[in-house]
From TrEMBL:
Lineage of the species this protein comes from: Eukaryota, Viridiplantae, Chlorophyta, Mamiellophyceae, Mamiellales
Domain Rit1 N-terminal: 21-345
Superkingdom of origin organism: Eukaryota
One of the GO biological process terms: charged-tRNA amino acid modification
A GO cellular component annotation in the UniProt record: cytoplasm
Protein name, as recorded: Rit1 N-terminal domain-containing protein
Residue stretches of biased makeup (Basic and acidic residues): 163-173
Residue segments, region Disordered: 163-203
GO molecular function terms noted in the UniProt entry: tRNA adenosine(64)-2'-O-ribosylphosphate transferase activity
Length: 357
């Protein structure tokens, strides 16, 4: 257990004592308490600020902060849980890598297209992507600062290009023939086509729209690579037909964290873009060893982005198993947390149903 690591130090030098204390701060009890603390913020933000928006957990870190709907607290309002339009916790996932947004390593991955995220946003008027960072100073991981904004712009340009090509292929003669054979269904299709054509013409290719903390130099370097990224999308042969039919306003990112004071009004249907709300679950530390308290008054060392790098602390526990058994885990207290987790993992691996990912 974490407490044993500290007791075993004994009379060893102060350096080893500090190392043991630091290890305890990042032990499994503090990590799980920090996750539960941040997940409560995510849940409330999604329900209160972004109702109706589907929620995606960015794998793997983000999955710890998005509780599956059936695993939410039993005393939650039943009507809210049953509301199909509520942006309550779901099991939707996506995969945007922070390394694709690292400085001088910017890239667009056609193998991680995440088209389902864009399609959901287009259909529902927007969506939320949840992730976190272990950085003690940054509010957003690079996946949110750069990877996703670049992805959104590549898809915007790809859709606009596909629409222009489709319009050119139809030609004036085909459009005239369709108009002569008019009925309600044909008229509806023609109106949808006209709207898509207008959207393609209106798109100005001025992105990606990056957050203010990205430097002008980096911003210019990323924009210089956009044509190459679009070429990567084009050569991949990705099917953008659904997006071409449903995306009426270009995708654009909006950044939200626990430090956000002026919340964006992204559910306004008059917005000129389709919002991708990038919700960072964790808060940066105000000081080393910062502590938080649970609703019951229990104190724990806060770990920002605790869900990251789960191999180093989770002892084989999955995010899904945590949400299903969190009451048992926390009931064991700081000293018994690791043993409780080990028992759950052992039961799961042995087919005992402790929860699967």
């Amino acid at each position: 257990a974490d407490a044993d690591d500290i007791r075993d130090v004994g009379v060893q030098n102060i350096y080893k004592v500090v190392r043991a204390l630091k290890k305890d701060d990042h032990g499994i009890h503090n990590c799980l308490r920090s996750i539960a603390h941040d997940a409560a913020f995510v849940r409330e933000a999604c329900r209160a600020r972004f109702p109706g928006f589907p929620v995606f957990a960015n794998l793997r870190c983000g999955a710890w902060y998005v509780a599956p709907r059936e695993d939410e607290d039993e005393d939650e309002d039943d009507e809210a849980n049953e509301d199909a339009d509520a942006a309550a916790m779901t099991t939707r996932t996506c995969y945007f890598k922070s390394t694709d947004g690292h400085n001088n390593n910017w890239s667009f991955s056609a193998t991680r297209l995440n088209a389902h995220v864009a399609e959901a946003a287009a259909t529902r008027g927007g969506c939320v992507v949840v992730d976190a960072t272990r950085s003690a100073t940054k509010r957003f991981p690079d996946s949110m600062s750069k990877t996703i904004p670049v992805w959104a712009e590549v898809l915007n340009r790809g859709v606009a290009e596909s629409r222009r090509l489709a319009r050119d292929a139809r030609g004036d003669e085909a459009e005239g023939t369709a108009a002569a054979d008019d009925d309600d269904a044909t008229s509806e299709r023609r109106d949808a086509t006209a709207a898509a054509d207008a959207a393609a013409d209106d798109y100005d290719d001025d992105g990606p729209h990056l957050p203010l903390w990205v430097s002008d130099v980096e911003r210019a370097s990323i924009r210089a690579k956009m044509d190459d990224f679009v070429a990567t999308l084009r050569s991949s042969g990705a099917d953008l037909s659904t997006l071409c039919e449903t995306l009426r306003r270009p995708l654009r990112c909006v950044w939200v964290s626990s430090e956000t004071r002026s919340w964006p009004k992204v559910t306004d249907a008059s917005l000129p873009f389709t919002p991708i709300v990038l919700l960072s679950a964790s808060a940066p530390l105000c000081g080393r060893g910062e502590r938080r308290s649970t609703a019951e008054g229990d104190s724990f060392a806060y770990v920002p982005g605790a869900g990251d790098d789960e191999e180093s602390w989770a002892r084989g526990l999955t995010a899904r198993a945590f949400w299903r058994r969190r009451r048992d885990i926390f009931a064991a207290g700081p000293g018994g947390c690791a043993r409780a987790v080990d028992a759950i993992v052992e039961a799961t691996e042995g087919g005992g149903g402790g929860g699967s990912s």
